[in-house]
Amino acid sequence: MIGMLFNYFVIALFLWAIVDAATRPKDAFPWAGTMSKWAWVAALLGGLALRAGLMPFRIPGSFLISLACFILVIYYLGTIKPKLDDSPRRGPRDRGSW
User: Which of 6, 66, 69, 96 is the most exposed place for a label (fewest CB within 10 A)?
Assistant: First the structure.
């Protein structure tokens, strides 16, 4: 029961990270010194597919793959997202002062 709840928690983290990465401006990623926006979205989608695909099976090595996917999403949310939060915002409201 706890294991299944943890799996759903990790999938929720992936969904949060994917939505976060997809809704950021693409210029923020090079500013933060990381991969491009769509590379992060693809990596997170791949991690989600691997993680969700391995949930119903007990195959050798699935724990290590699941652990790598978990580390990927934690790395994005813990390291990359704060850098993106600090990136300068450019848009119609931030055109400078009069």
Answer: 96
